[in-house]
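Entry for iron/sulfur cluster complex. Fields follow.
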Amino acid sequence: MEGRRNRADTGLRSDSKGAVRAPHFFRSGQTAGQVYKKLFKAFGPQGWWPVSPAPGELPAYRPLFYGPHSGAAMFEICAGAILTQNTAWTNARAALDGLSSARALSPSTLAALPLAGLCGLIRPSGYYRQKAARLKEFSRYILARHPEGLGKWFSDADTEKLRAELLMLKGIGPETADSMMLYASGKAKFVVDAYTFRIFGRLGLLSGTYSDLQLAFERSLPHDHRIYNEYHALIVALCKNCCRKTKPLCGACPLKAMCIGYKNAQDDTVV
Ligand code: SF4
């Protein structure tokens, strides 16, 4: 059973000075594991996905907590996964704050809210009409098809069946479905996003479709949702801190020694 674990059984260990370090579970030569360890050492546990401790409170990061979440927290994570589509997390979070302040973060409340009112609450997320419709559809689906509630639905569901079910819903693609599964449900599905394509393309390690990259990670890493949780969050941290879309800050990057893009740029400079 996947559940709340203390530091001793998360696979994450402390050194003699108390600093958290990555676990030693990768076989030598596994590049996905090498990248993970470098990122974890540089940025530490990320505490994703931020969830409001109580209704109306701001979402908080909880390093080394990997679930299980309450049904309410799961719904907040799923709503966040929809709201962050095609926009920065800061915008999605502002929309979530609006929903939370209005005590509207539940399937029954969202389904009952007038569309115009919902649009007003989530306007900061951008594409708010489209996202309001998606939130309403997701909420109605839970109420109609899963009267047991989101928490029980997500907890009891088989991983691949849950993914297939989510992907059938309008406006939920692979990245959104996998975010819901990994961060809300605690299922071991690796989340691939534009940052993943950027970093691993520049590193010269991976290319292909969403499914190609997901499969590569899932084959290379232990089947552990805690590792997938940290890994995706660490990829986001690297992109925000170093591997920016234009003018990446390679000098400060923990991966520069293994980065083909950085090496090529250095060679071009010398020539
Ligand atoms: S060295 Fe530069 S290009 Fe390579 S991963 Fe790091 S920031 Fe990105």
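NOTE: The chain has two domains: 7-48+190-270, 71-185.
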